[in-house]
Amino acid sequence: MISVIFAIIPFCYNVLILAIAMAVTGLAMGVIDTIANIQLVSIYQKDSAVFLQALHFFIGFGALVSPLIADPFLSERCGNRTGGEESLHFHRSSVYNIRTFNTSTATPPLAHEEESIVSYAFWIMAVINLPVPIAVLVLMYLEKLIPCCPGSKSRLLDKDELSMETQGTEAAPAPEPQHPAQQEDDVGGHGDLFSCCRNGNLSGLPPSFFGIHILGGIVLFMTDGIVGAYAGFVYTYAVAPPMSLTPKTAGYLASLFWAAITAGRLVSIPLAYRFQPVRLLMVNLAGVIVTVLLLLLLYTSSTFLFVGTCLLGLFLSSIFPCMLAYTEDVLEYQGCATTVLVTSAGLGEMVLQVVVGSIIHTAGSYSFLLCGMIIGCIGFIVFFALLLCHRLHRNYLTGTSKKTAMVEEPSSEKNEERT
């Protein structure tokens, strides 16, 4: 779907059609992001932190490389995008010439040439994305998972039946009564993402279970909101007083920020193997606050703006995968937390950009860093509330297991007396 829509985007001559196309693309990307995170957590569980860091490294790497691939086609006619006032003047004059062109004649040559050049960028990205769905379809065909695929049932089902037959030949003890939630998990398997939130299970869940979902989502709402707002408005902050950098110099800040995020996720892969996710979260959240505080204090230093941008990207890079691994570990990998956290992160990146942009428009450029400081502090406070909620949830589970053990001991003694 992503490749098809990227291929037809150059033919969208209506803004509404283009908006619908971009919305469908975003929907497809959101499904891929959510399912990829859920599957890694479901497969690797205790070791999922390392693989989540690797996954999000490639997400950041793609966000860093994709603009570099498209940049030559976007800037060939309009000049260098970071070329200062000359390129802006050339772009404005080109737009003016297109608008004042006689509409009764054919399409302006300049507009037609720019349109064809930009189209190449979308077509190249569509072709680059194609090997992934092709490889998945080949794998599905080899495993006979495609419904219209000729042949018998899939190999994976054959393996499952073989293991069931092997287990059936062995002597098995009488089945013990299971908890309703456990029975539903056995029936639904890993494909049932919302088994923990069904009506039959909600009544038996403690408040701490829902608190962990909500607080973890708020932390990612804040931190991913900082990522989106900083990447979107650091250029605006840099070219405005008192920083007053040239547009060409300020244009490198966003690229440096994404490069730091990508490098931070690469470094976090071995760190996730050695340290627990909760420790990495605490260090990263504290680092975000300290970095933004230094940017506020040294607001006239252009050198530290670049250094702070790099540090902020490094600290923000691994918060999402660490939070995902931490919450799923606390909730015993039921899958619901992943969906909530991915959705909350996307909402934060969308909403806080609008909020911060409106504040910058009304209060000035200095409010950009002040908003980042406030958002970071709120995220840090909510994280400590999440730790407290985790402790309450752990105490609840410990008390429940003790009660279960006390109930099982008398019943086992009675069975021994009967025998």
The span between the termini is 64 Å
CATH topology of the largest domain: Growth Hormone, Chain: A
Which descriptor suits the 3D outline? globular
How large, in whole angstroms, is the Cα Rg? Answer: 27 Å
| DSSP strand content | under 5%
Uncertain spans: 76-112, 169-191
Output the number of helix runs.
Answer: 16
Structural class by sheet pairing and helices = mainly alpha
CATH class of the largest domain: Mainly Alpha
Question: What is the residue-mean pLDDT, rounded to a whole number?
Answer: 78
| Helical content band | over 70%
Number of DSSP-assigned strands = 0
How many domains? 2
Write the element-wise H/E pattern from the N-terminal end onward.
HHHHHHHHHHHHHHHH
The CATH homologous superfamily of the largest domain is named MFS general substrate transporter like domains
Largest sheet: none
Name given to the CATH architecture of the largest domain:
Up-down Bundle
Summary tags:
Growth Hormone, Chain: A; mainly alpha; globular; 419 residues
Overall description:
The chain has two domains: 2-142, no CATH class; 207-402, Growth Hormone, Chain: A, CATH 1.20.1250.20. The N and C termini lie far apart (64 Å). It is 79% helix and 0% strand. Helix 10 packs antiparallel against helix 14, helix 10 (207-239) runs parallel beside helix 15 (336-363) and helix 12 packs antiparallel against helix 14. The radius of gyration is 27 Å and the shape is globular. It is mostly helical.
